[in-house]
Amino acid sequence: MANRNITIMEFDFAYQNQGFYRDFEYEWIDMTKMESVNRFCTQTSFAMIKNRLQSNRFRQITFLGSGNYHYVTLALLQMIKEPFTLVLVDHHSDLMMPLTDELVSCGSWVANALDQISLMQKVMLIGPRGTEKKLFPTEYVNRIELVGSHFLGSDGRNVFRAINTKAVYISIDKDVLDPQEAETNWDQGRMHLDKIIRMLKVIFADHKIIGVDICGEAAIVDDFAESMKAIEKNDRANRRLLETLVRLQKESLHRG
Fold it and tell me: What fold, for 6-255?
């Protein structure tokens, strides 16, 4: 990861009132005029999104908007050229079976990735309820590891040392966080941001991070004051995550 390679993907005006990215060099990709992309994305629109990303030199840290667009991670994973592990920090597994081959969705993109990306050796899921494991399709069970937050200990070092690829891609949905720390348009977990930051430090120390994306912005509601509270809360969380990632990038470059 090269320092400060930051992409902001604006699908739903989630970032125009946030300022976390303004102190960094970043690329702004305006997707607000795209059709058939909210929660469910047609293959035509997905190909257009992927084309925009391929022509973008800034995509090492990518902000995707609300969780409705988490499927964009699939496009980013499809561009990786070496064996890797996906570390997914999310309150949901996003492992629903696709409704049709004509659509990619925010709820099924992990299943798509497991089907389509042979270089993805394993998915480490952090944050879903333990009961979700019973719902995993049997053909994926051997390639998925579900890690409850209570297994992570102080920093999760033992958990992440079990990753058997050097390259790691990290995807974070802020719906895993306690509502006091972020507000999203999906039901949320109870993880604290400090725990995610500790996890990032451990993964960066032991692995080559080939990309990170972050989603989980709030829905805009009619109550302007309530919307601004959510925006400010998410802006703070995004700033902490971005500052941590940039610092960890620098440290990893110094280590060589």
Answer: Arginase; Chain A (3.40.800)
